[in-house]
Amino acid sequence: MSYPNKFLQTYELSTEIIKLISSTESYCYIVSPYIKLWPQLDRVLNIASKNNVFLTFIIRQEAKSDELVRKLNGEYGFEVFVIKDLHIKLYLNEKRCILSSMNLYDASQQNNLELGYEIGNSLSVKKELIEEYILLDKSTQHHKGKFEHERSQLLDLVKEAKEKLQHNGFCVVCQGEMESDFNPFSPWKVRCRNCYDMEENRYSAIKFCHYCGKEHEASRDKPFHYDCTQVLKKARKLTKPYVKHY
After folding, report:
1. Which whole-number Å values give the CA distances from 93 to 20, 23, 28, 147, in the listed order?
2. Domain ranges of the chain
């Protein structure tokens, strides 16, 4: 699902931020100097904690920040960064990004005239604004989340899966090595150029598995061994939420 660039008025902001947190698959950053956990937000964060969702909070260092860190990091286990003079309000996950004037504070929506702007592509914001700007502030204090070990393990698995999808394959006719984009659901190029030019039907005379290169008898639309297909399907499933984001 794609999200169009659009302005968000005061009454829309809390709802859209809650949706953004709830729909997180791989990462979510909540950048808000001041946060107050009203019941609906608290309920969403509680569910995210139980489901081991990777949430990162970036908050301002002030009198009540220690109490908030104990709640977000100690009780829920989320990653928390504390920055001395933070004034930025920014909410994003792997799909959406909301730039806003509003703190994650229910009173802000009830009492203030606020404005937000949503953009659909958040990857550049994650890299350029969060990783290379906000988190490089010299006052930053880092509180690791309880899911840090699971995050590291997952990213190792994602890296391994990417490698399975990116290495060269084999021509199904002559067994020659060739560059491939492995997609077990819709393989689009399974022959080298020479064999492709010689045959009108690109799926005829399949002799070798397109993934491992070993001998293979297949129907016209199955250029992989069964085991190779399962390996590729697992890799595709694992990398789907992460391949564009890490």
Report:
1. 7, 8, 4, 17
2. 6-146, 156-239
Q: DSSP labels for 57-109?
A: EEEE-STTHHHHHIIIIIIS--EEEEETT----EEEESS-EEEES--B-HHHH
Distance CA 180, CA 102 (A): 47
C-alpha span between 234 and 136 (Å, rounded): 36
Q: Per-residue pLDDT for the chain (246 aa), expressed as one digit of tens each?
A: 556 688 999 989 999 999 999 998 878 999 999 999 899 999 999 999 888 888 999 999 987 788 899 999 999 999 999 999 999 999 999 889 999 999 998 878 788 999 999 987 677 888 889 999 999 999 999 998 877 666 666 667 777 777 777 778 888 888 888 887 777 666 667 888 888 777 665 555 788 888 898 998 766 668 888 888 888 888 877 766 544 444
What is 6-146's CATH number? 3.30.870.10
